[in-house]
Write the structure tokens for this entry.
Amino acid sequence: MDAYSRVVTTVAAALAPSVLSVRVHGRRGAGAGSAVAFSADGLLLTSAHVVEGVRGGRVVAADGEESPFDVVGADRLSDLAVLRTREGLSPPAVLGDADSLRVGQLVVAVGSPLGLAGSVTAGVVSALGRSLPVRTAYGAHSIDDVIQTDAALNPGNSGGALADSAARVVGVSTAVAGVGLGLAVPVNPTTLRILDSLVRDGRVRRAWLGVGGVTAPVPPALADRLGRRTGLHVREVVPGGPAAAAGIYLGDIVTSAGDRPVSTAQDLQRLMLGTAVGRDLPVTVFRRGALVDVVATLAELAV
């Protein structure tokens, strides 16, 4: 048996008992997906879209044992949800850190595609830092730093585990983007904060600034002053939102927020997750050849 096969079989043996099949019945009919046990007291991690519109359902463990589950909380903006089932139904998996992944690294996907429990595929991390668009009441947003892999994913894999060679869960399978192209939400410190919020409060509270934009270069003189070459070019300001009230305009280039550098929309989204609703947030923008400081009072994002 070669080294590649040994890694895949070892990961599969370690992780398969912790991956369950999820079965739901809602207004849109029957649905299925996967989930990963991550605590000894019956908490499961899955994709939010797997349990959207339902409060509970049934899970099937790797040994065929069934048990009901309740939805503890779901977060559409990260496509993550926490379920609770019977304690001891499945052993908890070890959660890893996707921030340490590298392109080309071996990963193993374990899930229940098409209701086939314990299905295992393997591949590599083909890209990092992808964005997966989602929609909320305030328009389009994106899930940050999505993992792209060529490990085969099929319907029902959503909510299943993407693991590294040490059988640590580094991603939650979320979408099939094409032949040989699967996407997974990363498991990292941000994910852990989301899980803590879902377990504690049943939801994730996020602040909301109300701008949309794209990464754009800044003038060379400003780049030398800032120590970086890009900022966030504002292409959208939501009417009546915190940014509009603070005096941020179309065409501004956001260079920092909350004393942190901003170059991408993801930089702002990460900041919103860890920032208190109602807080005054200092924002610096480049406008008409000058840096302008404004203060935005952050509202809560409704999803």
